[in-house]
Amino acid sequence: MSVVEPPGQQLRTRSMLAAALDGTPPDDGSPVVVRHPGRRFGWLFSCIWLVYLWYPLRTAAADPRLGWRLVGVLSLLLFAGGFAWFFIAWRGRRIAGDQLVSTPPATVWAALATGGALLAVAAPAAGDQVIAGFLYLSVIAVMTLPLRPALVVVVVAVAATLLLPRVVPGWHVQDEFVGELLLGSFAAFGVGQVILRNGELVRAREQLVELAVARERARLARDVHDILGHSLTVITVKTELAGRLLESAGTDPRLHRVRAEVADVEALARVALADVRATAAGTRTVSLPGELAAARQALEAAGIAADLPVATDEVPAVHRELFAWVVREGVTNVVRHSGARWCGVRLDADCVEVRDDGRGPGADGGGSGLAGLRDRAEAGSCRLETGTSPAGGFLLRVACGARGST
């Protein structure tokens, strides 16, 4: 269970919008509690799978050779513990903070190799029952690897199940286990896809909430500027007129105080008008999800195929506004000047790229829009680069952090 307390009105608005999307009552200011009912007992899902290891473990424990018995039992216990740990760690990464975090393929292949080595060590004591361990290797593969490498692992496991009993003396044919292996692999693939889709839905919901908040802030900025700005402008003009009329009203000493008060009112009105304009301008900040949504609409309207990211979670908050300006300027240039048929945006933690397959960089090196964007990038300790994209068109890239200082 994680508790998030809204520190200000913006987060309160976010919680109200999220509640509206859920169909639940809006937040009344109390802490927002986000529960993950499966996280506390998630380890049970991995332990349920371990029932298949009972057969090789029982066989290994019955081996009359003490040395091989100890080696076989210990290897199988390590195999079981490693599978449970790997599954729990993978599941924890996939649901941590409602974000999708993929397991590096090198880690998966190392886990598969370690598991295969442990099964090989346990084989002299467990005999043909060690084939049950192939199911766990297949489950790890289909839940963590891309589809094609996972299919390769499953095919190898099936082939080993069919061939090893026929070439290893004393082993019995276990062709019926192939059906269980395939069924378990299919079930594991289904579980992985369900977790993946649920995570994508959560992220899409967060993007909708963030976009709704940005639109509400823009609407509030317009209302503040249009309503209060107009009223304060009128007050300023009328107080200035009143001051001029008082100046021609005569030299009565009693009017000096009136002139001073009117001048104060005029000064206060001007200050208030400047504050309203500054507040409205500060509220009209760009948001990265909003700019991606606007970019998709603009590209579709221009008949340009769009390849845009669906989430922005990996971009740190300090870079999101700058990256939003990059997306806005880059896509605007693609629509207006590139003559492209395709446009793609790539995001990561410290870099954003906008590329197309149009006519490529011009001879002028970019207009005032890119110059202003370069100033924004330098103000954020980032570097703007332009050039030819791999597709032959224009490439706009802004890199920050270590990548931006090279």
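^ that was protein a. below is b, sequence first then the tokens
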Amino acid sequence: MNAAPRRHRSVGLIVCAAVVLGGCASVSDDAQNSSLAALATQVPAPKDYHPPKPEKTRSCDRLFHSAVPSTGRMPAGSYMEEIRKRGKLIVGVDQNTLRLGYFDPSDKAMEGLDIDLLRAVARAIFGRSKDRIVFKAISTAQRESVIESGEVDIVASAFSITCDRLQNMYFSSVYYLAQQKLLVLEDSTDDTLSDLRGKEVCATKSSTSIKNLAGTGVVPHPVELRPDCLVELQEGNVAAITADDSILFGFKQQDRQTKIVGRCINVERYGMAINRRHPEFVRFVNGVLKRLGPAGLERIRRRWLGGLTAPTGDEISQCDHRSALRRAAARRRPQPVSP
């Protein structure tokens, strides 16, 4: 897209900091859908939200939750005890996502939905002592590598649970349901992926959002950092951004001359990622989430994303169904033959 730059505007530095231990029989989309549907986990939800009933094939509460021990009394030999003795919880977060994980320069502090959850984990280990978290800034593409290498203890960065990722790491219980949507300029008439065929659409590298553009006819425009997409849209280099609505909500607050449009493209189930060497830490984190409960998770959601309407159970089911049909159609579509 070669439109003239719409305007130049600096984008402030912003920051981002589960379903679960169960593996997938395969990494196919069908396996992913059936695996995720089988996980009986709670998600943050307002009173009018009714999540789809899970298949009764696995009890995550029984298998993957444990009681949270008293602060300072972590089980001997556990990873939580190792963290407690070290004195710091090392977390991987994205530095570029308003409302999910953001460095507020005025307060000189991290804030956001993901950050609140990480602080709840830290409090469960250390009590209410301050400065017990070390934040390591990572990009979308770095989320998996820092977990696999052990560089961080946990990643919270709008990290969607997928079968591919479950092969290499564990995830906590699902703590938030996002919907992949589109962000366009306020004067744009584009409303769906069909409207954007042949046009460039921005998304971050290694994200589920950019993968979900396969077979849609749009031209993917990959970038390293989430705010890069907002700059590209403002400069007229792309026709739209696609990302989770929780991410787009922050972009819209940064640029009031944009709007979120279209139906849900894909449902994204957020979890906190943990190295596979530490299943007891996953159970501990799930215990923290369970102790927060739906009411606690909903309070956190409303604090940071209160202006974003939570999806209903029917909307989630319909979006999952449309996503499966779109992926199936993409697989059937003939691939170009190399000369």
